[in-house]
Amino acid sequence: MIGCTGFIGNELVPYLLRNGHHLTIVSRSKARTFTKELLSSKDITYLECNPAEESNWSKGALIDALDAADGVINLAGEPIAERRWTSSHCQELVNSRLKTTRGIIKAMNQLKRPPRVLINASAIGFYGTSSDTNFTEESECGEDFLGTLCKQWEAAATEKPKSTRLIILRIGIVLGKGGGALGKMLPVFKAGLGGPIGDGSQWMSWIHRTDLCQIVQEGLTNKSWSGIINCVAPNPVSMNQFATSLGKNLGRPSLLAVPGPILKLLLGDGARVVLEGQKVESKKLNKLGYQFQYQELNKALKAITQMTKD
């Protein structure tokens, strides 16, 4: 597992352990957010190194771990919308994804018995942004920075060994307790200062973190799963709808919009991620018969905010 020590990994790691997996977690440092029980689990092996250094994948413990693995989960990548998009930060966004993935693929191709499955992250940013287009797994790639990055990221993963089943997860906005998009919004809303970002009309294609974890588990174990999967719930919403639903679940108003120009001052071009959305559906998950635990935003937010209060 690479890139699994943060917000998604906090739920994914214990979920996979409960389903009987033994995990090797590759990270620059042991996750400080994991519980003591997880850090001491006999079913987890930690390898501390920088996975974006391709040379690390050609020797020692990393290549040995790949050689022993049945499956690989690669979610590595610097967060997209947390810092201003300077030229140096954009290069970090690229390197953390492409160098890590290329290192993994190069190492896998050297093995006599490569892992049977590779689950590689991507993002719905692949499609670019639009106010009226309905994107599916069959839609074309966007021509902006994120679209180009996701296209390169996915192309690197497709160089995997022929015997390795590949699943590419184009992940939407992940909602859950303790981080992600909600991690930054909850304190503001709880203070009664929350509201939509920008004009509020932009689409938000979201997924509850629990559903994402279940999709990863299914992808690891179900041999019929392969190819590109949009990881989004069946019912995307506008930013206005999102802010209203979150405010209601917290018993707080959601009237104070965050003006787009202010966000652009803070994040530069990175503000486009939240100011310009996309409406994405997953034909693939529907075809595979996946049953979402959280189809509706209100149910998802109710569960998360209740956990936050506990």
Briefly say what this structure is.
The chain has 310 residues and is α/β, with parallel strands linked by helices. The protein has helices at residues 9-18, 36-39, 60-68, 87-108, 145-157, 180-190, 209-221, 239-250, 260-267, 272-275, 283-288, 297-309, and strands at 23-27, 44-48, 71-74, 117-123, 134-135, 165-171, 173-175, 203-204, 206-208, 227-231, 237-238, 279-280.
Characteristic key phrases:
310 residues, alpha/beta, Rossmann fold, four-stranded parallel β-sheet, two-stranded parallel sheet, globular
Mean of all residue-level pLDDT scores: 89
The proportion of residues in beta strands is: 15-25%
Poorly predicted ranges: none
- Give the beta-strand count: 12
Query: Under CATH, the topology is which?
Result: Rossmann fold
Query: Biggest sheet, strands in spatial order?
Result: 3-4-6-10
Query: How does the overall form come out from the CA principal axes?
Result: globular
Instruction: Report on the biggest sheet.
Output: 4 strands, parallel
Number of domains: 1
Could you give the distance between the termini? 30 Å
Blueprint (SSEs and pairs):
Elements: H1 9-18, E1 23-27, H2 36-39, E2 44-48, H3 60-68, E3 71-74, H4 87-108, E4 117-123, E5 134-135, H5 145-157, E6 165-171, E7 173-175, H6 180-190, E8 203-204, E9 206-208, H7 209-221, E10 227-231, E11 237-238, H8 239-250, H9 260-267, H10 272-275, E12 279-280, H11 283-288, H12 297-309
